[in-house]
Specification:
It comes from Chrysotila carterae (Marine alga). Residues 143-271 form the Disease resistance R13L4/SHOC-2-like LRR domain. InterPro entries: Leu-rich_rpt (IPR001611), Leu-rich_rpt_typical-subtyp (IPR003591), LRR_dom_sf (IPR032675), LRR_domain-containing (IPR050216), LRR_R13L4/SHOC2-like (IPR055414). Keywords: Leucine-rich repeat, Repeat. By secondary structure, the chain is mainly beta. It has a domain at 174-302: Alpha-Beta Horseshoe (Leucine-rich repeat, LRR (right-handed beta-alpha superhelix)). Helices cover 8% and strands 13% of the residues. The chain is built from 3 helices and 13 strands; from the N terminus they run H-E-H-E-E-E-E-E-E-E-E-E-E-E-H-E. The protein has a 13-stranded parallel sheet with strand order 1-2-3-4-5-6-7-8-9-10-11-12-13, with helices on one face. It starts with a helix and ends in a 6-residue tail after the last strand.
Amino acid sequence: VPAVRAMADEGEAEVDLEEQGLTEVPAEVLNNGVIESLVLDNNELTELPEALGGLSTLRELHARRNKLQKLPAAIGKLESLEGLFVSGNELVELPGTISSCGALAGIDANENKLSMLPDGLCDCICLEGLYFDSNRLAELPDRIGSLAALEEMSLNHNALNLLPPSIGDLAELKMLRLAHNNIAMLPSSIGGLTKLKGLFLDFNRLQRLPEEIGGLVSLEELNLEDNALLKLPKSLSTGKLVSLKGLYLQNNKLASLGFKPKLLPSLRKMSIAGNQMSCEVNEDLKRDMAEANITETQRQDE
């Protein structure tokens, strides 16, 4: 590829080889000693070479929408790597050596075939964002709470049944997306996420919530639609959820809300259709919502 040779000769810090029909990474790229950003999106790559580990200055690796089934173990040698973007591949696992990527701040691995995450991922303490939507994850590492800098984690459309108790140690977490999984219960430690602003649990198998959920004092959006909730915890109405603006409860098994919605002072949107409320309870609730200036909405699928 002439463009590759030109970039290699000029010592380019950014090498963009998107949509070049590549089946392998050109040798010229692997010999570039100053490269900081490598873009390989939309090619035909089935693997990345171990020699990639020699790119000591690499900060961003983009390999979206290829045919990668695994990443090289040598990725652990990329001590400067901050962003790993590998969505839309066929990855079944991440290498354990990723634990040595001490500068790693974000991973986008949406739309792969990952069934588990390596425990070593929890050693990447600079991680701020994890995106693993549309994989096959059945569990998270027990030490996930070690990621003290993590602010956003998205795990929609997986096969998660439980969350590890350490998840409550993610003190900086602001957004947690868990829609379309098989989660039947939440750990009581969830209440430790005091900076969490968005919690999306729609399309799971929740029958109840821990009382500790009332400890989410920064929460603004709580989506619980399409679960099997029979009742809501009393802690929702004790006055701690002062920031909650949206509460989405459509398609559960609630016979009543259990409290007056005006007890949530910031609440402005709520969905309640598709529950097991009598006509009288439903009418009373809608009247209470109107008095509190709360708008009834329909499904808020994330």
